[in-house]
Amino acid sequence: MANSLVQVRVDEKLKEDVTMIYEELGMDLPTAIRIFLKRSVQEKGIPFSMKLTDIQRGNKAVSAMQRMSQAAEEKGVADMSLEEINQEIQAVRQGR
Hints:
By secondary structure, the chain is mostly helical.
């Protein structure tokens, strides 16, 4: 199979850092990139876990709380006190 040239522009410091890491592992940068590409094909995607940062998770939590607050407003229960909420729960439990 014919080889194809792939060119990528990266920050010089990143290239130096990653080259040192791969040299310690006994390979050069092109070999490491080929390994990444082959694993991507095997995995049918990025060959490592990609996780949301804590900030992104926090943003999702805030969005969920805002949706819950809006739903409470729409149902007319947003201004209920804790005591009123507990009374509602108790009434439902006794109704069973």
